[in-house]
Amino acid sequence: MSSEVTREAILDALKDVQDPEVQRSIVEMDMVKSIEIKGSVAHVEVLLTIHGCPLRSVIEDQVRDALLRVEGISDAHVVIGTMSDEERQRFAAKLKGPGASAQQTPDLLKPDTLTEFVAIASGKGGVGKSTVTANLAVALGRLGYRVGVIDADIYGFSLPNLFGVADVKPAVVENVVMPVQVKGIKLISMQFFVPDNRPIIWRGPMLGKMLRNFFQEVHWGALDVVLLDLPPGTGDMALDVHGMFPRSKELIVTTPQQTAADVAIRAGLMALHTKHEVLGVIENMAFYQCKGCGERAYLFGQGGGAQVADGLQTSVLAQIPMGEPMPGTQGIFARDSLQGQAFDLLAQQLATELRLEALAAARD
Ligand SMILES: Nc1ncnc2c1ncn2[C@@H]1O[C@H](COP(=O)(O)OP(=O)(O)OP(=O)(O)O)[C@@H](O)[C@H]1O
Ligand SMILES: [Mg+2]
C-alpha cells in the first residue's frame, strides 16, 4: 500500500547511491536534504557540494532509480540543490574523518595500514617507469583492486599526460582534494596544481611537504595498493622519496641495453640498502613484434632485464614489448594489445605476491 512507504525505507534505498566524486553514500554524507512522500510519489532533494557539478545528472538518475525500486513508490521527483557554505564545511569535516588535523599521520601512512605500497624505480631516466606505473595501475584496477597512483616525480611529473588528463583539475571541497579518477584508478600529480607548465623551483623540504600533502589533503578513500612513480636515478631526490615510504616495496624498470642495466642495478642496490624489498625487474621496450608476421626485433639488444635480476638476486617479472598507446592517451596500452596482456599478467603476479586479495578482505 502506497501510504505505508516510510522515510526509513526511502533512506535505506538511497544508502546505496554514492557520490561518484568522494565514493561515499549520499545518506552517510548527509547529502539528502529532504524527503517527502505523497501517496506513491516520492519527492527528494539532494545537495551537491558545488553548483554546476558535472556529475549532477549521474546522481540525479541514480537517486531516481533507487527511489523507483522502493516498494510502493510509482513516481519520483528529484531536485538537485547546492550546499550552503556551512553544509559544505560539515561535509568536508566528515570526509576527513573524526579528529583529523594537520598534525595527525594520514591513515595511509600509518604503520598498520593494510594498503600495500609499490614504488617504481629505475637507474636511468626515460626507460619507462611512468609508463609501467600507469599501465600496471590500470591492470590492477581491471582485477578489481582499488588503486591509487602517486606521481612522486614532483618536478618531472608525467602521469597526467600519459593518462590523457593533463587538463583535468581535481575537485576540491573545502581544502579536501579528490584524486582524479581515470581508467579505473585514482591519480594525484603535481601537474594538477601547477599553472601552465611553470617550472617548479622548490627544493628539499618542499618535496617532502608536497608528498605528505598528497596524503594529508587528498581524500583517497579505501585503497588496496598505491603505486609510486619515482623520480629517475639514484640521486638525492630518489633517496628522499625512498626515505619517505619506508614500507614500500620496489619494482625496478630497465631496458635491454647494457648501460641501462648497469644503472638499474645501482637503483636496486639503493633500494636494498634503504631496506626496501625488491619485488622484481620489469624489462621495458624488450622487443618490437611485427603485427603481421609475429617476428620479434630486439631493437635495444637483449639481456638487460636478466642481468639486473641476477645482480639483485631477484627475477624478471615481465618483458613489455614496444607499442603504440591508445588514442586519447600518451601511454596507456589497450587491454588486448601485447603490452596490455603483459601488464595483466604482471598485475596478477603482483596481486598474488602481495596477497592483495587477503588484505582487501581483511580491510572490508
Ligand atoms: N613499451 C613501450 N613502447 C613504446 N614506447 C614506450 C614504451 N615504454 C615507454 N615508452 C615511451 O618512452 C618514453 C619514456 O617513457 P616514460 O616517460 O614512461 O619513462 P620514465 O622512465 O618515466 O622517464 P623519466 O625518467 O623521464 O621519468 C615515453 O615517450 C614513452 O611513451
Ligand atoms: Mg617518469
Could you characterize what this model shows?
The longest helix is centred in the last third of the chain and has 16 residues, at 258-273. The protein folds into two domains: 2-96, 2-Layer Sandwich (GMP Synthetase, Chain A, domain 3); 107-363, P-loop containing nucleotide triphosphate hydrolases (Rossmann fold, 3-Layer(aba) Sandwich). It contains eleven helices and 17 strands. With 364 residues, it is α/β, with parallel strands linked by helices. The chain is 34% helix and 21% strand. An eight-stranded mixed sheet has the order 10-11-7-12-6-13-14-17, sandwiched between helices. Helix 8 (258-273) packs parallel to helix 9 (304-311). The structure holds adenosine-5'-triphosphate and magnesium ion (MG). Adenosine-5'-triphosphate binds next to helix 4.
Beta fraction of the residues? 15-25%
The sequence of SSEs as H and E is HEEEEHEHEHEHEEEEHEHEHEEEHEHH
What gross morphology would you assign? elongated
Mean pLDDT value: 88
Q: Main sheet, how many strands, which sense, barrel?
A: 8 strands, mixed
User: Which architecture of the largest domain would the CATH scheme give at its second level?
Assistant: 3-Layer(aba) Sandwich
Model regions low in confidence, pLDDT < 50 over at least 5 residues: none
Please give the CATH class of the largest domain: Alpha Beta
End-to-end Cα distance? 37 Å
- What is the CATH topology classification name of the largest domain? Rossmann fold
Total strand segments: 17
**Spatial strand sequence of the major β-sheet:** 10-11-7-12-6-13-14-17
Relevant CATH superfamily of the largest domain: P-loop containing nucleotide triphosphate hydrolases
Say which molecules are bound, naming each kind only once: adenosine-5'-triphosphate, magnesium ion
The number of helical elements comes to 11
The share of residues in helices is: 25-40%
